[in-house]
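Sample 1 of the test manifest.
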Amino acid sequence: EAAVTQSPRSKVAVTGGKVTLSCHQTNNHDYMYWYRQDTGHGLRLIHYSYVADSTEKGDIPDGYKASRPSQENFSLILELASLSQTAVYFCASSDAGGPNSDYTFGSGTRLLVI
Amino acid sequence: GEQVEQRPPHLSVREGDSAVITCTYTDPNSYYFFWYKQEPGASLQLLMKVFSSTEINEGQGFTVLLNKKDKRLSLNLTAAHPGDSAAYFCAVSAGNYKYVFGAGTRLKVIA
């Protein structure tokens, strides 16, 4: 069954430390996305990618890097984690970048920065 | 850019009652609209995708209305039951990769 798998499911990180969130999809989708969800807010786009070895900035890229080493894998990297990056992070994939595509979301990663 | 406002942020209804959630958007060029359901601790599940050409869309136990003149999208859960308790998010697309999400509505259905 096609899916988007995120790891870890939850993580506690120390301020200033490096955090890597991983995402793996078996949908054979070209597009992958990283969103963050804060309490009381909708999802906001951090980075996305439409091809391996290339990433693009979303609406809130500051403080985050992304890596797409293959079609299946997309990572979000926090080089210097900060308290404000405590949130739930969702990875998603889609078969095309246009609005006719359907997103498949992962189960989310709960990140707590202390 | 596109902005989406979703109301209400919290909604509590009794089992069997209807529940209405509304999103207003700003970009008149938006033409794809989505409703997602998120149960506690889970991911987002697509409820319905709506095209701008269709004003009324019916799903299993709910209706989605699109008013393009007022730039308003609504989700009406008819005869809500406890299994409908979840967070609901609208999303709007103006024709590219990006979805703009509403802030969500936390719905609680009381038995």
